[in-house]
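#onboarding

Welcome to the new folks! Below is a worked example of what a typical request in this channel looks like: someone posts a single protein sequence, and someone else replies with the predicted structure as tokens. Don't worry about understanding the tokens yet, we'll cover that in week two.

Example request:
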Amino acid sequence: MLNFWSRDRAIIVGSIVFLILSLMDGVLTLWGLRLGVIEEANPVMQWLIETSPVAFMAAKLSLPIILGFIFWKIRNRSCKFVTYSLGLVLIVYAMVMVFHVYRIMYYE
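Example response:
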């Protein structure tokens, strides 16, 4: 029973961290674009930025929310998949944050 609760807590915390990292990614992307030190690599997100930064941020924040709900829903059927996927997402986003911070700090 203890393992069940710790796994659920890990999914919740991981999803919240994913949401925070996604928010930071969006803010730093917009800031870096304004400074001219980074480029958005995703063509869909680039189009959203050009259309409306608000739409870009809405899309940026909807991904971790939707993925968090999906992970929560399948947590009992695919525990290893959820754990590894969430871990991979957090590692990738952490690397993106390091890249953004480095580029913005190097610029200034």
